[in-house]
Every structure is written in C-alpha cells, then in structure tokens.
Specification:
heterodimer, A: 165 residues, alpha+beta, six-stranded antiparallel beta sheet, four-stranded mixed beta sheet, 10 strands, B: 375 residues, mainly alpha, 15 helices
Chain lengths: 165, 375
Amino acid sequence: MKKMMKRPLFALALALPVVVLGLMIGLHQQALSTATDWRIPISGYDPRDPLRGHYLRFAYDWQVQGDAALCTSSTGCILCLHQSDDNVIAQISSPETQCLNPVDLKASSIRFSTGPGSPARFSSRIFVSEASAPALEQALQNKPGFLVAHLAKDGRLISRRVTTD
Amino acid sequence: MALEQKLAKWVAADLIDAKTADEIRAHEHARGRPVLLWAIAALGLLAVALGIILMISANWDRIPAFVKLGAHFAMLLAAALTCWRANISGRRWESEAALFIFSALTLGGIALQSQVYQLVGPSWQALLVWMALAGPAMLLGGRTRLIGITFSLGLIVAMTAMATSIRGDTPTILLSQGLAMASPVILVLLSFLRKQLSTAMCLTMRETGFNIILLGASLAHFAWADAISSSQALDMLLRLTPVALAVAGALWLAWRSDALPKSLLLPMLLGPFAALFLTVGIPHADGSLSRFIGVAVYGAMWAAIAWGAARSASSVLFAIAIGAIAVRIFIIYLELFGSLAQTGVMLFAGGLLLVALAWGWRALVRTARMGKAKS
C-alpha cells in the first residue's frame, strides 16, 4: 500500500525537473524569437583570463550619449540603443525611460566604469573555447572586431559570438 | 588477513572448532567482492567522463545551442526513465546511481540555460531552484546514503549561500535568514518521516542535521565574548522564529516515533536552541560575567547531551559530549578570564563537571551489566 501510494508521487517528482526545464527553454526561446539582432563594434580586448577560464574581455565601442553620472546613482541607468549608419549609439537614460531598444546593464552582465577625465566605458566578456581562441585572436589583431548579440524585450543583451567579418 | 588472525585466536581459545573455522572461511570468500577491480574500473570510467567533458569544453562555442540543450534534455529524460524502471524492478543501486545522475543533470540544466540564454543572478538562487526541482525526487526515491548526503548538503549549502548573500534588516530578509538557520533542524524533522522515507536516507539526514546543529550551537556561544545590543537581539529573535517552529515540529514528530531515544530528544533538539537563544536573543555586554555565563550555558548544553547519551547507552555521543566540554575547558585555560583566580574557578568547575559525568557514565554501565547478569 505504501509502495503503491509512493509510486505516482515519485513519477511526478521525476517529471517535475523535466517539465519545468522544458518550459523554461520554451519561454526563453519565445523571448528570443522577438529579439532584435545587433552588430556592435568592440575594442580593448584581453584574449585570456587564466583565473576565470577562456573568456574574451571587451569594451563596447559604441557612441555614448547622455549623462554618465546617472549610472553611478542609486537608481542606476539603462542604455537606449539605436543604429545610425554604421554606428551604434547608446543613449544613457534613467530606468523609467521608454525607448525602442532598452538594454538592462545588470541583466546583460555589462560593467560600467568611469573616472575623472576618462569617458564612460561599458565592458563585458564572452566565452571563447580553446578550439576557437587562436584563430579569433589572430583575426582581432588584423581587423576590427564586432559582437553579434540578440537584444531581448526584457532588456537582456545576449552575446552570441565575436567576429571580424 | 584480519579474518585469519581472528579465526586462529578463536580456535586456540576453543570458541570454535577447526571445521567451523573452515566453514566461516569458505562463507566469507564466497561473499568476497573484487574491490580493487571495481576501484580501477571506476577510475577508468571517471577518466573517460572527464575526457568527454574536456573535449566538449574545448569546442563549446562551436556547438549550437539547440544541440547542447537537446543533448542535455535527452540525458535528463534517460536518467529519469532509468531511475523509474530500476526503482520499480527493485534494482536499488541502479536506481540510486540514475537518481544521482538525474539530480546532477538537473543542476547542470539550470547552469546550461544560464549560459545559453545569458541569465544572471546570484548562485544561491540557482541552488534553491535546483533543490526545489530535484529535492522531491531525491526525498521520495533515495534509498542510500549517497542521495541522503546529496540532498542534505545541497539544502545546507543552498540555504547558507542565501543567508550570507542577502543584506538588510527587513522582516522578509530576517525570516529568510532564519529559515536558513533552521535548515539543519528541517533535515532532522524530515528524518522522522520514516513511513515516507527509507531508513538510510533518514539516518543520513538526521546525522547531518544534528552534526550541524551541535557544531553551530557550539560555535555560536563565542558570541558571549561580544556585545549584543537590543536592536541586534530583536533582529535575532525574528531570525530564531523559523528555528523555533522547526524545533517544535521535530520534537513533536520525534516524540511520536521511536526513531530516537526519548532521553536524547530534549538535550539534542531543545538544548542547542535554548543555548543559541540565550547567546544571541538577549542583549548583553562584553565582560567577564557574560563570558562566565557563556561557558556555563555551553557546559549545560553538552552536559545535558552527555546525560541523555548515558541514559540511552550511546557511548559515541557520550564521548563527543565529554570531548566538547574538555575542549572548552582547554580554551578557558587560554582565555584567562579577567584574573587568574577567575580562570582558576572556571577550570575547577569545568574539571568537576567532567569527573562527575565520567563517574555517572561508569555507574550506569555497571548497573546495566548487573541487570543483564541477573536476567
């Protein structure tokens, strides 16, 4: 009797992670299906960070507009992206601002840094596997690099790959 | 080798004859397992698994996201089905191994989706999601210490990570931290659900829970050497609320079951909670008096446990309790309470307590032996 009662429960317990993880994939894919693709120039890379594995650290080489002090305030800031010819312009705005292509810095793992006399800098990192790293390193030394990313509706700028094409 | 020596001793002492010794020898050899062979095979399998992981890692960004997610999902489904079928067929070790792999793959799935979809957040959130998803399967399907340890440590690590990461003094945060403090008691509470869980799971969760409860309460008493303000004490009272509820629940369940000797219930569950409450739930200044009270509270907690252990003939627990008191006495010697005289008083009292406990234990053992001899 105990075994008979436990089995349906155990089956449900085994199904729980499968169903939930599957649903999560579905939700994320749905969010990505409405995401826009962006090709953003990058610069200032460090091909290897031995302490944290194979990560390419880079700075977004977009044109920054607006007041950088907003990003260090208690409310924080978002970036409103728009394309102008071949350039990507990042307008620093307050979190309440409604814009077409908002980027949530925290959700996108984008680090903000600034200093006296130095311009605002937005940087991040992307995983580069051992097999891809040598060719990418060589290519970045000869040509400018671009980050191909998806911008989801929730403001996550999801890095996909680094390219020189 | 050890068996041969024992058999030779027993034959020499006329406890068994040579024929019985041969039968024992044959029986043990028949049950023998090729442990070395299994160890080498296990090392080989581990090397294979690590090799596969490293090869995949070296080409990680070349593998499309849908392949990674699809392969993981297939493995998760396969592990779940294997576990289910082995569980129904009564193949215990196969079921346990599949359940362990299933739990690991669940955590791996959370990490994989974080990487593929670039989800950010503190690691404790991922761990709590993992426990919420894989915990029920581990509790209901686990049979051996392997899953018991995985569940117990997973819960403790996830809750500890949460408690140490969240900052603030809002009621929600304080109660969340209290829930983390209650997690070892929750493990003990769950261990008393013997009708629903297997014995090995219960034992593992209970041992882990009690180890952390006793260690935590012992370490916390060093707060007597620190000042606790009224506002800090108030915050701690809120944190201790989930702990109190968990202790009450565990006591109620334990009292109804025969899982633990009744003489140990109050010392092991209520004693550490009371010691913790006195240490951090009441404002006190730092001074000699506070430190004296701290030593007395610590000594009383472990003395109660020693007494309960003596009454229930738990020699290992009794030895641990005596050892804990001895360690604290040694620390008194290093602490030097205010003056040499005060230190001397504490050492004298602590030493008397140890002697009394040892005498009490000896008296109980002697009484038990006499009782057995009469019957």
